[in-house]
Design a protein that fits this description.
- This protein is α+β, with helices and mostly antiparallel strands.
- It has two domains: about 220 residues, Rossmann fold (3-Layer(aba) Sandwich); about 160 residues, OB fold (Dihydrolipoamide Acetyltransferase, E2P) (Beta Barrel), CATH 2.40.50.
- It is built from 14 helices and 20 strands.
- A hairpin with a 2-residue loop joins strand 9 and strand 10.
- The longest helix has 16 residues.
């Protein structure tokens, strides 16, 4: 059993605050991912859990026991470092089996485990190679194997960017293998995994903690983080978005039924309808638009407050011609650019809102119809289901510029 708690943990390096008053609970056998941009404090978070750093304030508990002052060696965990930290004078097998020798495990049992992890990471046949003879991706896989064999008593595995040097195909395959291994009855690991790759996080995590500038921004399941982001940073970090500035009009009766249920019986929509509340907003058109937000956010936003309506690029739908009167949450536009991206097309579409030009990004599956008919300079109607419109309180122009890297 490994249940981890960080209570009001902070860490500074001179005048730089790496982590600011972080409180997190990581459950036993949970695959917990820490997601955030470079420099957000993710690696510091891991090193505090591992005992490689001591917090300036706050406490850390393993299974209810205070381990704040315990060393890394006393915590008995598997840790994969971002820079691999392989022994240059040892070959692959010697690096991987190092923990078994130090802890005097049965040599045959250790060799069996080594063979298994070598097979899982596609390193079989390179047993005698040294780190300087391997590519960056191979060294990363060796480091991962070594961390797996370093698990002693706590069954806690800590991974710092474990897949970043791998090609896309191997990264997805190994991510799946890691998850299956962690969840297996034989191991039953608690995993704390750092990444700045949102797809990697969404694929593996039971829960995700989003960190930015040393602060914990949001914790939730992949579904919660994706469909109910707490703020503009979280929404934008997980995928390409569009945003519309508007005014809350919840005291007015909208011209269309924003409370109607989806006729398609979509389970995702049903979940959003159960957990959230629709809100009408005016973004500068005759017809009101609507999106969803959780009840506490709904109650915080008053009639007349400025808000942002956020729609992910892959949630925007597109139809040829002017069909604004047929659709809800609809805008007329012209295709400026389209780009084939393999499995999807990415469109940049020019629209006018309050007599100002705005470019909306739409991504759609690369079907034959999209390829043949949705050409540059075509007039199109953009729209989105209200369940996929995310509403947050307007954070201010400076925050929008900073998060979206606008000039």
């Amino acid at each position: 059993m490994v249940h981890i708690e960080l209570k009001n943990v902070s860490k500074k390096f001179r005048n730089f605050t790496a982590l600011d008053n972080i409180s997190v609970e990581i459950k036993d056998r949970e695959y917990f991912i820490i997601l955030g941009p470079t420099g957000a404090g993710k690696t510091t978070f891991l090193k505090l859990i591992a005992g490689l750093l001591k917090p300036d304030s706050g406490m850390i508990f393993f299974d209810g026991k205070d381990v704040t002052k315990k060393s890394a060696g006393e915590r008995n965990i598997g840790f994969m470092f971002e820079n691999y930290a392989l022994f240059p004078h040892m070959n692959i097998v010697e690096n991987i089996s190092y923990s078994g020798r130090v802890h005097a495990r049965d040599p045959q049992a250790t060799q069996t485990l080594v063979d298994q992890v070598l097979m899982m990471t596609l390193l079989t046949g390179r047993n005698d190679a040294y780190p300087n003879e391997l590519s960056g991706g191979m060294r990363q896989r060796v480091a991962l194997c070594r961390s797996l064999l370093n698990l002693e008593q706590t069954k806690l595995l800590i991974l710092d960017e474990p897949l970043k040097a791998l090609d896309a195909g191997l990264r997805m395959s190994l991510s799946r293998e890691l998850l299956l291994m962690a969840k297996s009855k034989e191991l039953g690991l608690t995993v704390v995994h750092v990444t700045n790759d949102e797809e990697e996080a969404m694929m593996a995590a039971d829960r995700i903690a989003v960190i930015n500038q040393g602060k914990l921004v949001q914790i939730g399941t992949p579904h919660e983080i994706y469909y109910q982001p707490k703020d503009l940073f979280v929404a934008n970090f997980l995928s390409e978005i569009n945003y519309f500035e508007g005014i809350c009009t919840k005291k007015e009766i909208p011209a269309w039924d924003i409370y109607s249920k989806s006729k398609q019986g979509d389970k995702f929509f049903k979940k959003i309808q159960e957990d959230s509340v629709p809100m009408p907003i005016n973004i500068g058109f005759k017809n009101v638009f609507a999106g969803y937000l959780n009840e506490s956010q709904y109650n915080e936003i008053q009639h007349g407050d400025k808000v942002l309506l956020i729609v992910r690029a892959n949630h925007m739908k597109i139809r040829l011609g002017n069909r604004v009167n047929e659709k809800k949450n609809a805008i007329l536009g012209i295709i400026l650019r389209r780009k084939f991206m393999g499995v999807f097309y990415r469109f940049e579409i020019l629209v006018k809102i309050n007599h100002k030009d705005k470019v909306i990004v739409v991504t759609r599956s690369a079907t034959y119809e999209i390829h043949k008919s949705f050409l540059e300079n075509s007039e199109v109607t953009l729209y989105f289901p209200k369940e996929l419109g995310i509403i947050i309180k307007h954070p201010g122009d400076n925050v929008i510029k900073e998060v979206l890297k606008l000039e």
